[in-house]
Amino acid sequence: MMKRSLLVWASCLLISSFTAAQNAPASRDPWLWPFSQDSIWNRPIGSDAQYESASLPASYYIGCDIEWHCKTVESDPVVTVYSPSSWSKRWPGDRELGELRIPAGLIIPDASPPHTPNACAVFLMPDGRTIRQLEPACRVESIGRIVGWLHHEDQDLYGAGIKGTHYGSGLSAIGGSIRIGELSGDEPIHHVLKINVWGKYLNYSDDNHGFRWPADRSDSYASRNYKGSNPQLVMGTLLALPPDLTPEDVGASTQVGLKLFHALQDYGAYISDDSAWNAYDLCVERGVPEEVEKTYEFALTGSEGVFVDEMKRMVTHLAIVVNNSPDSIGGGGKPRQPLAPPISAP
């Protein structure tokens, strides 16, 4: 009976994988599913991936790092960008940093300590492919300014898309983001995720400086606050659920939990920022938590709850893909899922 059950389970896995490949989307909207096929955000985990337990403990809280994703048109105003007045009070800003086209009526709240969100923001320019990013974004009234540290390098929606204003790591504020509709629809998540981890679990040394590729930095306080002992667990580390793990092993049963389980197993998640307390944060587009609560009548965040408890268990099973590198994205080998469909220039 045990052997038959294993055979049936294996057959189901093969059928599921074949179905996933057959049903892979033939096209994509680059705004909703950005960057090139070989971008770090679109490469599945490979068959040659080498796993090492991350040994992350369960957290008190599961949160969401809310990102602002905004399209602009030619008629939108170009406003002055100011550096934040401080981390805890961003508005009205201090010195001029440059200019940025933004939606005319855009309002982004100030921090309200102890709530001091990263408030990463991405602005798609009217050409349909140039994106500009800043953090922490703040605009409490519709006047000719916006506050936030503007990234010095624009990104191409059709390119690699690595860099951005998750300034704990230097990673993108749109690549790896969970978008509206991805947790409420029937379609699986087809891309890598981003996750924030408490800095005390991350490692800092004179050799790694608290980060690894594809991150290009760690927090300014990393040498003081990163207390972890594993030199592989740093900003930019790719975390994934091991291939032999099943949803039953972590008690994942909700549609949201199952979606995230398979995304974390097939694509993984890059460590992008410090959650700064006893929490793990998923990086999501503004409106995703409300959408989940309205659709499923449970919360995406909190200290307890049907999904929160699932996510807490999943985190403790995450492993480090130790051989993730520019030459072996996702560990290399045969990808667990089909590559993203190509996108063509507008």
Question: Would you spell out the secondary-structure blueprint of this structure?
Answer:
Elements: H1 2-22, E1 51-53, E2 61-71, E3 78-82, E4 96-101, E5 121-124, E6 130-138, E7 145-150, E8 155-156, E9 163-166, E10 193-197, H2 222-225, E11 238-240, H3 247-250, H4 255-266, E12 269-274, E13 279-285, H5 288-296, H6 306-316, E14 319-321
Helix pairs in contact: 4-6
Written account of the structure:
18% of the residues lie in helices and 21% in strands. It is α/β, with parallel strands linked by helices. The chain has 2 domains: 32-64 and 176-331, no CATH class; 67-171, no CATH class. Strands 1, 2, 3, 4, 5, 6, 7, 8, 10, 11, 12, 13 and 14 form a 13-stranded mixed sheet that branches. Helix 4 runs parallel beside helix 6. The radius of gyration is 20 Å and the shape is globular. The relative contact order is 0.21. Residues 1-22 have low confidence and may be disordered.
What best-fitting shape do the alpha-carbon axes yield?
A: globular
Distance between the termini: 56 Å
Number of domains: 2
Strand segment tally: 14
Helical amount: 10-25%
What percent strand?
A: 15-25%
Summing up helix and strand content along with how strands pair, one would put the structural category as alpha/beta
| Helix-strand sequence | HEEEEEEEEEEHEHHEEHHE
Overall mean pLDDT stands at: 93
